[in-house]
Amino acid sequence: MVVAALTFSLPKAESEESQEDVSPLQVPHNSAMFSLLFLATGVALCVTDAQPNEENALQDMQKKVNDLWLSLLYPQLYEDIVASNRTAYASCLMKPSPKVGADKPQVTGHVLFRQAYPNGKLEAIFNLDGFPAGANLSGRAIHIHQYGDLSDGCDSAGGHYNPFKENHPRHPGDFGNFYSKEGTIKKYKANLVATLFGPYSIIGRSVVIHEQEDDLGKGNNKASLENGNAGKRLACCVVGTGTKNLWERQFPEVKEKRKKMLTTKEASSSSHGVAAKP
User: Fold this and answer.
1) Which of 51, 70, 88, 93 has the lowest tally of Cβ within 10 angstroms?
2) Is 114 helix (H, G, I), strand (E, B) or coil?
3) Pairing between strand 206-210 and 140-145?
4) pLDDT in tens, 193-228
5) C-beta separation of 233 from 97 below 8 A
6) Is 174 a catalytic residue?
7) pTM
8) Is 29 a residue of the active site?
9) Residue 233 is among the residues annotated as catalytic for this protein
10) Contacts of 175 (CB under 8 A, 6+ apart)
11) Catalytic residue among 67, 210, 214, 215
């Protein structure tokens, strides 16, 4: 595939005095800007079809697309990324759905995101409370949903965020199943498909915790290919831009927990291997 080189002239960020408050998904009403955004989206789609020998050139192009997109739609985020060693942070304050009965888990906590700009993989920390304490509990599905509209509780968040019209579980925000321990979920995930940058950013969208386990698209029905038959929406939150402070407080704990878990698995595998020898 032959791709023409593109050069974007990025607008300078406005001063704080001249900037207006803009909601996460509010797009400026300017025809020229819409044209640039349309171009950026088109280029981003081309990048997804890149051949290996075009990787460097297309990564540079992707950076320019992300620069353009951020500087137009989220100028403050763009400034924050540059100021924080080109790393973006986002957070989501989890609250129970008002439609959930008192007999259901009242889930609170937060989901944190971090991503190196412009080509890093998304990382996430899930720190959630309010699940039943006990053993042999089923998993809880967590997904990114299309809208950040919580006016009708979690029900108005729409379906799964699915910009590429794929079947579940190949949506960018299909995070899988999470298992609580003593009523709490503390989990770190890396190399996620979702992104904070570009036309497919999850900023302004919602994170939803479901009542049931995700069947990962293996349920042999339509709902399985749409949402994994994950059941009712227990809690939700809207992803917004954030600072590194909360991430840096939480990351050492989840990193140590992950290290211990991997060490335990390795020790278990090693002991089974020794036992299997004659």
Assistant:
1) 51
2) strand
3) antiparallel
4) 999 988 899 999 999 999 999 999 999 999 999 999
5) yes
6) yes
7) 0.74
8) no
9) yes
10) 124, 126, 142, 143, 144, 189, 192
11) 210
